């Protein structure tokens, strides 16, 4: 079993839709949590960190449930430019050490 | 451009040959990471440097792989006696000593072993 598991994709949604991605992690020693975005044939880029209290950045909302070891990402009012692969990421030591990535969930937003 | 740079961007080699990749981190970043990504998977950690010290190595890093970071600046990743299973995208990332936890990734080196 992989340490970080994500919803299998792809998600195909129309513009304006709300879409939610789920992720679970197996190591309770995980301390830091992130969502990265990766465009086709490009490098991953940090989308947002995820905090226990939940956090929002514009149309993006991330939630963390430490008890269930569950992370989510909600995208509201999807744009064509949101089409990408979304990677759920955990780290065991404040993010300074290695990042452990899920396999990613591909999102395709269509007109 | 002051981001992480990697060279070469693409490398095609025959099985059994040695290859070396270079990563130049963001100048004030003292932490440097190597990851490997295959199609349909997320990046997998290979190794980590803090300044010139290699502090962690993954079990994925077999004895055919070696990484260095002389003087705590650029880093090289060498693969000896390449195998077809080594074909992947090799990503380098760097992060600052304090402050943001974000790791900034370079564009990667795509290796194809024929």
Output the keywords.
heterodimer, A: 111 residues, mainly beta, five-stranded antiparallel β-sheet, 53% strand, globular, B: 114 residues, seven-stranded mixed β-sheet, 11 strands
Give a verbal description of the structure.
The complex is a heterodimer of chains A (111) and B (114). In chain A, 0% of the residues lie in helices and 53% in strands. Chain A has 111 residues and is mostly beta strands. The termini of chain A are far apart. With 114 residues, chain B is an all-beta fold. Chain B is globular and about 40 Å long. Chain B contains no helices and 11 strands. In chain B, the strands form 2 sheets. In chain B, strands 2, 4, 5, 6, 9, 10 and 11 form a 7-stranded mixed sheet that branches. A 4-stranded antiparallel sheet of chain B has the order 1-3-8-7, with no helix packed on it. The chains are: A mainly beta (111), B mainly beta (114). At the A-B interface, strand 5, strand 9 and strand 10 of A face strand 4 and strand 5 of B.
Report how far the terminal alpha carbons of chain B are from each other.
Answer: 33 Å
Q: Given the C-alpha coordinates, what overall shape of chain A results?
A: globular
Low-confidence stretches of chain B: none
Order of helices and strands of chain A: EEEEEEEEEEE
Q: What Rg of chain A do the Cα atoms give?
A: 13 Å
- Average pLDDT of chain A, rounded to a whole number, is 93
- Largest beta sheet of chain B, briefly? 7 strands, mixed
Fraction of helical residues of chain B: under 10%
Could you tell me the strand content of chain B as a percent range?
Answer: over 45%
Query: Given the helix and strand composition of chain B, which structural class is it?
Result: mainly beta
Terminal CA distance of chain A reads 37 Å
Number of strands of chain A: 11
Can you summarize the main beta sheet of chain A?
6 strands, mixed
């Amino acid at each position: 079993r992989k340490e970080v598991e994500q919803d299998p994709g792809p998600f195909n949604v129309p513009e304006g839709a709300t879409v939610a991605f789920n992720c679970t992690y197996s190591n309770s020693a995980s301390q830091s949590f992130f969502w990265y975005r990766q465009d086709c044939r490009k490098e991953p880029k940090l989308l947002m960190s995820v905090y226990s209290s939940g956090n929002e950045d514009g149309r993006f909302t991330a939630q963390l449930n430490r008890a269930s070891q569950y992370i989510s990402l909600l995208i509201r009012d999807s744009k064509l430019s949101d089409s990408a692969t979304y990677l759920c990421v955990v780290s065991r030591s404040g993010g300074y050490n290695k990042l452990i990535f899920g396999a990613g969930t591909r999102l395709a937003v269509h007109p | 451009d002051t981001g992480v740079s990697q060279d070469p961007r693409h490398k095609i080699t025959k099985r059994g040959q040695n290859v070396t990749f270079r990563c130049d981190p963001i100048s004030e970043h003292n932490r440097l990471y190597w990851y490997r990504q295959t199609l349909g998977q997320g990046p997998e950690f290979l190794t980590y440097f803090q300044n010139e010290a290699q502090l962690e190595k993954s079990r994925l890093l077999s004895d055919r792989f070696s990484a260095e970071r002389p003087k705590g600046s650029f880093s090289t990743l060498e693969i000896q006696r390449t195998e077809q299973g080594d074909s992947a995208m090799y990503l380098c990332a760097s992060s600052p000593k304090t402050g943001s936890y974000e790791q900034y990734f370079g564009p990667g080196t795509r290796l194809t072993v024929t």
